[in-house]
Amino acid sequence: MRLHSALAALCILTHSGVSNVEAKWKVLIIDGQNNHAMWPKITIMMTQYLEDTGLFTVDVERTAFTWQGEELIAQYPLKDGKKTIALKEPKSDPDFKPKFSDYDVVVTNFGWRAAVWPQETQQAFEEYVQNGGGLVVVHAADNSFGDWDAYNRMIGLGGWGDRTEKSGPYVYFNDAGELVRDMTPGKGGSHGPQHEYQITVRDASHPITKGMPRQWLHAKDELYDRLRGPAENMQVLATAFSDKDQRGTGRHEPMLITINYGKGRVFHTPMGDSDYSLECVGFIVAFSRGAEWAATGNVTQKEMPADFPSAKKSSQRPFKRNR
Asked: Tens digit of pLDDT for each residue in 57-82?
């Protein structure tokens, strides 16, 4: 699989990120248990964003899902219609056994209180990332599986799920621009009311953030703060200021993060609470670039779109399903 991916990379045009060959990166989005009711539509949106680049083909594997999002399943069903059994409470799905090794990247769209996976599935997932598989973690997926040590090391930082100082430090930037690892006791994960907030790029040389304005305004979203975890082999690419006037921390919290786990590459963004949050052009660009970096270690999507947000003005693309 990795050899196939490397050969395909040689054929990708290095301008807008659109491939001129049939070979593409294979992506698996996993979902089904999420406390955010909008998750079925968000899976459809992420699928379309990736496929629209011309670089990816996308499959979805769904657990038996919890009641959240049941109504949206009818509006945004999967193309094959599989796995549409609703559960009133999170419950482990013994049939959830994706073949992760068939894919270059796995995108997780799980959330808080997601039920533990079967042991066989956990082990396969750990081996997949450890051996070089790519992983993308979006928003509430960093709430999941607080007791799963390997998962917490993959995502770097997480919130809720009974995470405390035993899970690792709070990680943030202070006003002097210094990265802080803070072992103060306390729970992991909080946020104030949704609002637009400014993203500050901390590493402009990384393939995911290269070419972005140093600051850009993200659309209305939850701003996760007080995330904590192992934070090993982790790099913070961009932050957002969590304003105390918005019930925040008064700290610059990680918003674009990369982690190396074994041979695997992980891109993690706490952004993406709702459909209007994902319509942000900044999110779309960061997500698509992050997925390519997780697959290859490189980004061929070089150009910033003309409608990319500025430091003081957000920019959204109203979503319309095109397939």
From this structure: 999 999 998 888 888 888 888 877 66
Distance CA 272, CA 294 (A): 18
Instruction: Let me know: does 167 contact 187? Beta carbons within 8 Å.
Output: no
Give residue 56's region: left, alpha or beta (phi > 0; psi -120 to 50): beta
pLDDT at 144: 97
The model's pTM is 0.92
**310, pLDDT greater than 60:** yes
Q: Which of 229, 242, 237, 138 is closest to 179 using CA atoms?
A: 237
How far is it, in rounded angstroms, from Cα 226 to Cα 32? 26
CA 181 to chain centre: 22
Pairing status of strand 170-173 against strand 179-182: antiparallel
Token representation of residue 194: 């949704």
**Helix H or strand E encompassing 250:** none
Task: Pick the closest to residue 255 from 278, 286, 281 (CA basis).
Answer: 286
Over residues 209-241, the pLDDT tens digits come to 999 999 999 999 999 999 999 999 999 999 999
Report the distance separating Cα 108 and Cα 124, nearest Å: 15
SS3 content of the chain, % helix, strand, coil (to 5): 25, 25, 50
Alpha helices for the chain (secondary structure H) = 2-9, 39-52, 70-75, 119-130, 149-155, 275-278, 281-296
Distances in Å between the alpha carbon of 62 and those of 31, 66, 69, 105, 265?
5, 11, 13, 16, 23
In this prediction, residue 82 carries a pLDDT of 66
The phi and psi torsions of 62 (rounded to 5 degrees) equal: -120, 130
pLDDT band at 5 (very low <50, low <70, confident <90, very high): very low
Q: Which of 119, 189, 127, 139 is nearest to 31 (CA)?
A: 139
